[in-house]
Design a protein that fits this description.
8-stranded mixed sheet; two-stranded antiparallel sheet; single chain; extended; alpha+beta
């Protein structure tokens, strides 16, 4: 069962229209999250919305948005006024143009969404739009309103649906000159470049997301499990970066190291994928995840938590 849609409306290519629903393509709900606690009592911290001058709590229905003009002057804008901003993209993704994927600068990419037909009708029209984009090998560019903001969205076929990627506006992308102008113009010798290329060739491979493990997440699980078991926590030595004195010598040693890594990696072909599966298995007992009920049953009292911490 797919999660609740972030947006529902229509996808339109000229006179071809179909009802569609937009869903987030990624999720971070499986990552460990922390609550803020009072160190003394062990109770959760609660945040209140208060008037900055009177200090009194303000009810949600009395809170409006305000644009700051100067220190003490705000222009109030109500929810109704925001909803009345007449943008067609509030309910319709109108495809404005088609571009080559290579023309989209990666800096403009924000986040991916899945787009599919909404309900039983419109599958034919959706398929026509999807297959047209696929056959033309292009990316469709349109506009959509999410959270009261109009975004550019790039649409491309993905299996039986479409993947929509939100794009930034030019004013949101910073000028690289502000950061790169002070980098020295260094002349890289052919010998150094050849050695570096050799390292790249030894480490060349295919992008397989399943073989990557979130080592920080795994370390967090280990830390929490140790604290739950009442074991002492001993800090591990941090890796230290060393200054390279002789660049050529470092490159030569790197070539040898890369060759050894490649040779070792070729022996167990699928061990990395098992590590990833194991990582998910470790996440299961953490409270608030998929095994929430089981974890809640084993959850210690507030006093016990404070003692183990």
């Amino acid at each position: 069962m797919a999660p609740r849609a972030n947006w529902k409306g229509f996808l339109r290519l000229s006179l071809v229209t179909c009802p569609v629903a937009l869903y987030p393509a990624t999720s971070e709900s499986e990552k460990i999250s922390f609550n803020q606690l009072n160190r003394v009592t062990g109770h959760r911290i609660k945040y209140l919305k208060v008037d900055a001058d009177t200090g009194e709590e303000v009810a949600n229905e009395d809170i409006v948005k305000g644009y700051k003009v100067d220190t003490d002057t705000f222009i109030e804008v109500t929810k109704d006024e925001l909803e009345n901003v007449a943008l067609e993209s509030t309910r319709t993704i109108e495809i404005d143009e088609f571009v080559d994927r290579s023309e989209i600068d990666p800096r403009y990419l924000i986040r991916p969404y899945y787009l599919r037909p909404d309900g039983k009708v419109g599958h034919d029209a959706f398929a026509v739009i999807r297959e047209t984009i696929r056959e033309m090998d292009k990316v469709a560019i349109g506009r959509v309103v999410l959270t009261n903001r109009e975004h550019i969205i790039a649409l491309e076929p993905l299996d039986k649906g479409l993947m929509g990627t939100l794009l930034r506006y030019p004013y949101e992308v910073r000028d690289p000159k502000e950061y790169f102008d002070e980098i020295d113009d260094v002349k890289v010798t052919k010998d150094m470049l050849d050695l570096a290329k050799h390292i790249v060739e030894q480490k060349a491979g295919n992008f397989e997301p399943d073989k990557f493990e979130d080592q920080y997440e795994t370390a967090l699980v280990d830390l929490i499990n140790q604290k739950r078991a009442g074991k002492p926590i001993t800090p591990k030595e941090r890796p230290r970066g060393e200054n390279v004195v002789d660049l050529m010598d470092a490159l030569r040693k790197s070539v040898g190291g890369a060759a050894a890594e490649t040779k070792a990696a070729k022996k167990p072909a699928k061990k990395a994928k098992k590590a990833t599966a194991g990582q998910k298995e470790m996440l299961m007992p953490i409270a608030g995840k998929k095994a929430g009920k089981e974890a809640a049953a084993k959850k210690p009292a507030a006093g016990a938590r404070r003692k183990s911490a």
